[in-house]
Each structure stands twice: as C-alpha cells, then as structure tokens.
What does this fold into?
Amino acid sequence: MSDSKVDRRDFIKTTVVGGAAAASAAGAVTLHEAQAQTENEPVQPATTSAAGYSFLNLEEAAFVEALVDHMIPADQFTPRGTDVGVNIFIDRALAGAWGKGDRLYRSGPWREGVPAQGYQLPLTPSELYREGIQLTNAHCNMTYGRSFDRLEAAQREEVLIALSSQKVDFGSESIAREFWNILYQTVMEGMFSDPIYGGNRNKVGWRMIGFPGVIGFNREHVKNYLDRELPGEPISIEDMS
Amino acid sequence: MVTRLPEVDVVIVGMGWAGGILSKELAEAGLRVVGLERGQMRKPGLDYGVPAIRDELRYRSRLDLMQDVARDTITIRNNPSQEALPMRRLGSFLPGEGVGGTAIHWSGHTWRWTDMEFKIRSYYEDRYGRDFIPNDMTVQDWGITYDELEPYYEHFERIAAVSGKAGNLRGEIQEGGNPFEAPRQNEYSLPALSPILSNIKFTEAAQNLGYHPFPRPSANASVAYTNPDGVNYGACQYCGYCQRFGCEANAKGSPHVAVIPLAMQSPNFELRTQAWASKVLKDSDGTRVTGVAYTDLMTGEEYEQPAGIVILAAYAINNVHLMLLSEIGEPYDPVTQTGIIGKNYSYQCNRATVLFFEGSKFNPFINAGGSYATFDDFNTNLDFDREPHDFVGGYTMAGGFNTYLPIGWRPVPNGTPRWGTAWKAATASGFQSAMRINATGSVMSNRYNYYDLDSTYQNALGQPLMRMTFDYQENEHKLLAHSARIMNEMAASMNPTIVNPATEGTTPWSVVPYQSTHNTGGAIMGTSPDTSAVNKYLQNWDYHNLFVVGANVYPHNAAYNPTGPLGALTYWTADAIKNRYINNPGSLL
It folds into this structure.
C-alpha cells in the first residue's frame, strides 16, 4: 500500500475492531439512562450515518463508494453520492430479491446471443455486480497499478468512459455491456427512487429536478399550473405513512 | 395424480378485459362459469392505494404487476436463421398478471379500428393494384366490418369510462375531434381530458402545419362517472402514475373495477386464482374441446376442469401458446406457408423526438394515461396517398406525457455527459423544460414473423416455451423514415431551444427497451379455415365450443392500440354465445 493517506478500507477495519465503543458513542445513551427513560418516555432510536452493508464486502463497498461519489460529486446541485445514500441503495438492492434474480428466467443452456436478445448471462444481478467489480479492479490494477477506489478523479473518469463504451476487455462483450448497464441503472435508481430504499436521501434527487414525489392529486393543478412551477416540498412514501 | 372436477358450462382462462367481460356476461345469462387466473387476487383499495402505489422503483422498474418470466417466458430471435434465446427479463412488452391482467396497468388508450384495417387487403388492392402489397406481407381481410362492431365499440367505451371528443357523428365532422375517424352514432359519455402544456404546444404546431390534432380517447374518467352497469368511477387526478400502475382513484377503466366485481356477485361465477391453465382438453373424435387442465400454484396439484364451452382469454401471446401446447389446429410453417397457428405475429413500431424549451414548465408529473394530443393525418386518413412512399399502414403522431417519472424520464440534450456536474445541470434543467413527440406505427404481418414451440427451453411446468420470430421489415422501415421526417419538421416549426431529432435509421427489433405491449396475431380471425384459426365470432373453426378472445385474433397490427377492438369483439362474442350458441351449439356461421 503505497498510498500515504488513510485508506477507507483500513479505516473500516480499524473501526470494526473498536465497533462496540464506536456504537455506544454514537448511540449516546447508556443502559442506565435508557432504563431511567422508560419510566418517562420511550428511548429514541440512535440515528447513525455510518454505512452498514448487508451485501457488499469491503472491496466492493470501496468500489461502490468511489463510483457513486465520482458519478454524483458534491456540487451546487446535490451532496455527493455516498451522502445521498446511493451506495446504501445499491447494497440493499443487491442483497434483496431483485439482486438475487427475482423475475429473471434462469434456466440454461446459456448462449451469448445478439444484443437484441437482451440479457443472456447465467448471473444474478448481485453475482454480476461482484464479478464486474473484480474485473474492473483488475483492469484498473493493470492499467494504473491500483484499484478503482484509489485512482485519481481523472483516472476514474477514464475508467468509466471505457466501461460505458465497452472499451474494457472483460473477456466477454456481454459481461462488459451488462455490467455497465446494471451499474448505471442502479446509480440512477439510487438517485431518483423513493428514499424508502436507502438512496435519494432527503429527496435531493427529486429536489434537483423539481419532481414532487408521491403526491399526485393534480386535478386542479393541471389547469392552475399550466407552464408554472408547482410549489412545495417533495413528498416521499415515508412522509405519507 | 390429476383430479377431475365436476363439469361446468364455461371455463375461462385469464381474467383481464376479455375474461372479465365474458365472465360477467355469461354468468348473468345463467351459465355456470369458472374463471382461471394464474396470478393473485388484488384488492384495488389495498393494493393500489397511496402512498405505496406511488413507487416508481417497485412498479415501473421492477415490474411488480407483470408476468413473472422466472417461471414462464418466451424465446426470441429476429429471423429463422438465428438461434432463439429466452427473454430472461421483460423489456419490450409487459404482459400483466393477476386479477385484472394487463388492464390493471394499461394507460387506457381506446381506439376504434376501422374498415381500413378490417378490409386491409381489399382496400390496398382496389386502390393501388395487386402488386402494391409485397409477396411476403401476409395481411388479410378480417371477415368483420366496422358497422357490425360500432354498437359494441360504443358499449365498451361506456363500460370502460372512455373520455374523448367525437370527430365524426353519423357522418358530420365535429370541431375538436378526429375528422378521420369512422362515423360514430353517439358522442363519448365523458368529455375529453384537460390538456397539459405539451398537448397545447403540439396542437398549435400541428394546426399551423395543416394537420388535424385532437385529444386522444382514453379510459381515464375525466369526471366522476357511473357506467351503464352502475359501476362508479372516480375522476382522474392526473397523478402521473398511470402506465405500469394500478389506479388509486378508480378512474381508469379496468376489468377489476368494471366487470369482475359484477361477475363475482353472481352465484354462477367462481374465480380461481393461482390457477395456471396448461392445456385445453379435447374429445377423442376431434369435434369438441372438453375442458382445461390447470395446476394450482398454491399446492402444485393438477386438476381438470371439464366444461361445455372453453374460452381462452389470456394475454395474446399466452392464448397462442395454449393453442400450440394443446395441438389445436396445424402449426404454421413459414417455409411451406402451410398451417395456421402461430401465423401473422405482429407488433408496433415507433419513433420519438425530444424538444427542449428553455424556461418552460412542462410539469411532466401532471398527466393522465391518455394525456396526448394526437393526429391521424398519416394513419386513418384515406386521402394520404401511400403510393409515393411505398408502404402499407400508417402512424399516429402525438405530443404529451404519460407516467414520466424520474428513474425513467431524464431528458438531456444529445451529447450531454452521462454523470458528473454537467450531467446534473442538464438533468436539472431538462426535466421541466423538455417535451416529447412520438409516432406509433402499424406493423404489417409478414411470412417470417410468427410463433412456434421452442425445442430447447421450458417453463416451470416443464412445457416448451413459445418461440417468437420477429423483426421489422422494409415496409416498417419506410414508414418509420416517413414519420421521422414529419416529426422533425414538426419539431423545427416549434422553435425549441434544443432538439434531439428522431432518427430515420433502421435497426433490428430488440427485446431490451420498452416499446409497446401490443402483441397481435398468432391465432387469427378470418373468413376461411384455410387462412384463419377463428371465425368472426372468435369461434375456432375445428372445435365449435372453443372461443379464443384476445388481440391474437388480429391478422395484422395497426398504429392504434388494440384494446378498443378487443373490448368490442369481446362483447360481440358474448352476444353471439348468449343469444345464439347456447340455444344451438355448433358453428355460428
């Protein structure tokens, strides 16, 4: 590890060792205090901004965090991808039914086919993600001598342009194409789906474009807001539940 | 171990519009009816309620209301020289599953197809000569006329709460409607939907160029409404979550609102959900079908449901699949051009352009399923001379929005980076400032577009999957090139800040991007058993007690969406069964 800066994976490993202490510090109530509180009011759940992953391993998490922060940088429009929860969205999507192949016909035999025949890989989305990250990091290691998450911004940009135009050699055109498809799809979903899935935190994706969210009683608006901006805050499923 | 159940009068496979209408009509006529639906029961108030239904990820991206292709799909290829591979994910089209079928999540566009379609071969041959239709274009007359269907169109429009503006009342052209439609006896029950900005801009531009725009007729109740059967509809809220969603406001004409609840009130009707029909049963002498075999998806148990009348009313693709699996009729062979079942599979084609108007507020999240201003100058317009353009058929052109939500609709000018701050800047501005114009075109049937059974891949019941062989032909490429030119002229006339023009280029049909859930043909209607699977009453030529009701009976596909004629044909067939067949079982011709 030639990088002199503290690496996120090292940082995570460190905090995992000190996990209990870190958790209680974040939680900010002791057992004694909690017991005392129950007599008066319920204990409020501790809120934490730490990324707890249910699918991604350390290497994959580092890749996804670097990816979403590069594709969605902090700027005048939104906070960066990890602060919007796009990494969390991706982790949950891959851990859940969709990631495990729900609504995907999985019987063989498997053939490459032509692009017009669509997805033909034996892989579930979570398997494809895992393989694709390894292949991308192998490409980065070969080209730049380090994994994607440790590249400079300009190098990450080069990698993403290569991925998006299928200029990387993954040994299979299908894997290269489908990995980029799923990567791009999930980043966009994490940016614009309802916050109930872990991304689009604070509805920043919706705020950025002016999407009002789940509210949809527009019967009067259709006339009253013709060529006019609809005022108000976006509403999410949680807001109405 | 197969359990044979007591015989009933009618067994119906599938519980969408066709199955729902027939269940209600036949049960009310006194017949004992069993409905088999592969999907689950859904309760509109619980399953389509706010806020849970307003979930783009679940319903639009993950397709929660659609057929589960993990257990049953089709194989696909562009031409007979390719190896067909399974459609492992839904994409190009989205058949529904569950009580209500595809009509849970449809948008409601309800058209009256005219004699231009029903007499297509006669019309083109009379006008342009026999050589105008290419040899491999297997279009044929349907054996039915607009005049026969007109009252049934009207009835379906009233049942399904279609909102619109008549353009031709008994031959008198009406201001504000479609002047190219066939004569209607009566005005729509509900006024047209309120226009949105993209409709208004499109209408102005079309009028300036001499076209004849009108509001699209759609089964989205523009006002609260009670239909002739006493069913109450709420008023459409323009919620922007129509296509791929169930309707929270009960404003979308749907069988689970309009007909299935009425069928269920009848003691003659029994609905079995989680019941996957696997085969039509036949008697030994080949003159009658005897019932349907199905698998109960809660237990895995297999049953046979004997019935005096069998009605296939599943999604168009699945009806044809059941015919092939049951060995009803001769499978079609494109080499010898013999056989019937699987023939004339057709689809639709389309082109689109995106226009950016800096400073405009299109509010793409405020719309009904039918929020399209449309013109038919290149579709049902008899004065549009096809000869110089050398294509059969036509296309509608429209400007509007229907369910443009942010995972799926993030318009940016061509050439914009796909991530980073520049992408965000363009996305932030494009969402409100962009509108879209699209053309939807007919697809003529062709010798090499067809279905048969796949010899490699199987569904969860261990049956061969259906194999679809399909591509756009020269006719469609010419039609699309014409539509792209007209569309780009339209766009330029509107002086947008930026435009992503429609492309004239030709590409093979791909299963990946969503295009149209309007799959037609495969078990087609016609005037003779030599050229069709069913007669004009959708009655099978070989087995007179088998009716096949779905867009699979259309011998070709039009630019208009198929549900209008499907609703009309279903009521027409219901009348034929109730008023004639049950008194005198046999061929209705």
